[in-house]
Design a protein that fits this description.
This protein is mainly alpha-helical. It contains eleven helices and five strands, in the order H-E-H-E-H-H-H-H-H-H-H-E-H-H-E-E. It has three domains: 64 residues, no CATH class; 75 residues, Helicase, Ruva Protein, domain 3; 69 residues, Winged helix-like DNA-binding domain superfamily/Winged helix DNA-binding domain (Arc Repressor Mutant, subunit A). Helix 2 packs parallel to helix 3, helix 4 packs across helix 6 and helix 5 packs across helix 6.
Length: 235
Amino acid sequence: MNVPVHGREPTGELIKKFEKINTKRRIIVGLDEVDRLKDIDLLYVLARGNCGLVLVSTAYHSLLTLTTRIRRSLSLTEIEFPAYTADELVDILKERVEYAFRPETISRSLVRLIALAAGGDARVAIEILAKAGKLADSRALNQVDTREVEEAISQINRFESLYPVLKLNEHQKTIMKILSQFKRMNSGDLYRAYTRLTPNPVVDRAYGKYMQKLIKLNLVSYEGKGRWKTYEILM
C-alpha cells in the first residue's frame, strides 16, 4: 500500500495519512536518505505505530546520534552493502547501454574500462557512461571512443575528489575541520578538540566508528594503536 507524499509535508500531515490505514496490517515504511530527515521524531512515531522501518543512508552510522528514546524504539539492525565488483558494474552498464545507446555505439572493452574506473560505485559508473555519450554526441560522432571515455572519467574524478566530504555527517565534518587546521593529531587531543566544538558529542564507541569511516573514505590516515593512534588528514 502506498502513502503518497507531495513535497515537504509537515510531520503531522504524514501521521494523519498513516492513521487512515488499517492498523491491523503490518506496514513497512522505507525512508531513503534518512540522515537528511529534518523531523527525526517521525522515526519514533512510526516505530511506535506498528510500522516496520527500512532506513537507507549513504552516511555511515548516521543514526548513532539519535536519542536513547528513539534508538530503543527502533531496535536497529545495520546492514552494510559492499561496493560492486567490476563484473557487476559491467552488467549494470550493459543494461543502460541497451536502452540509451544505439547498437554498436560503444564497445564492450570501453564499458569494462568505465566499470573499472568507477571504483565499485554504480552511480559513478552511470555518470561516466552518460557523460561519454554526451561528449560523443556533441562531436557528431557515430561511436563513443576511448577519448570520450577518458575525458568523462577525468571530469567525474574532479567532482569525486570532493564527493566523500558530502557524505559526512556534522560530527565527521567537525573532525575534518579540526584536522584541516592541525594536519596531524594524536587520538586524545583530537577527541578533546571534537568534544569542545560539538554541542552533543558522541561517546568513544561511536566516535571510533566515525574515524573508521574517515579512514575508509581515504580522507584520514593513522599510525599506532588504541589511545596511541595518531591521525593525519589526506586532503
